Amino acid sequence: MKSVAEGLVLVSYGSHGIVQLEDGSRLPVKYRRQVGRPFCGDHVRVSLSDDNSGVVEVIRKRRNHFLRADQQQREHIVAANLDQVLIVIARRPLPSRDLVERYLLAVHSLGIEPVIVLNKVDLEISEPGAAGEQVLSHLEDYRALGYRLIETSCKTEPGIQGLAQILTNKTSILAGQSGVGKSSLVRQLLPDLDIQVGELSRVTGKGTHTTTTTILYSLAGGGYLMDSPGVWEYGLWKLENSAISAGFIEFGQYAQTCRFNDCRHDSEPGCGVKAALKDGKILAWRYRSYQRLLEQNDQTI
Ligand code: GDP
Ligand code: ZN
Hints:
The structure is a single chain. By secondary structure, the protein is α/β, with parallel strands linked by helices. It has three domains: 4-59, CATH 2.40.50.140; 65-227, P-loop containing nucleotide triphosphate hydrolases (Rossmann fold, 3-Layer(aba) Sandwich); 241-299, Orthogonal Bundle (Ribonucleotide Reductase Protein R1, domain 1), CATH 1.10.40.50. It is built from ten helices and 13 strands. It has a six-stranded mixed beta sheet with strand order 10-9-8-11-13-12, sandwiched between helices. The chain has a five-stranded mixed beta barrel with strand order 1-2-3-5-4. The relative contact order is 0.13. Residues 119-120, 122-123, 153-155, 178-184 line the site of guanosine-5'-diphosphate.
């Protein structure tokens, strides 16, 4: 009888991938048409062959999945079973207006915990007065709303310790615009990155294309860090209007008192969100970004 084992998908290509078994060993696996293709981070049952390879027999139920968008704003799954998305922004390049909001909405709609990472805190803001500077001036507000915010520098103090700590025993992925320092953070969080990549190449007998493939790396202190090159650098998939209002988490309790169930919190009478705004219970800048995002969404239909 063939033996079977449970494993974790570290990397997944079209019809094959690499799985880590519970004892830590890694082996190349193939997929079956009837079972389908697992993604990086999926838990799978593998039947083992004598030549130290395997076949994925069952893909275990996913807790969640992580998406990227292509140029047509279509969704593609790139990973599964994440605890956190690290939304990386920087003092340089400054984030564009509404960027953090959009990322937070997207993470919320996927049912994953967001963490805002402000990198390059060693630098001064290069364009005082720019819209992106306003974004940075709102960061403490995010904290007050209940979001986690970590400051890092890959060059000097405060380093990456604060970030490393919250990754322990979790599965996290980095997302953000090009140039904010994602690769630098990965290299610092994974001092043995080259060894891990070399190990993956050894398992398949081929090179590992770290610039195009989503890979699950092991963190020395426990937990996993996923690197998915280019993810969210150029934009997101189109969000529903309902995902926009749901993602403004502080609106929730007030929206329950809106007269209309489908209230857009715009010009409807008896709107609980507008009332809370007037009473200063909702931040004016948050409400304005909500309006802008709804407007932009309406225009792209
Ligand atoms: P990515 O495109 O998000 O992967 O960004 P990179 O990691 O390639 O970093 C872009 C540039 O920013 C590189 O020149 C890095 O050396 C620099 N960089 C990254 N992190 C920091 C930081 O914390 N402080 C400073 N001053 N520069 C940084
Ligand atoms: Zn309303």
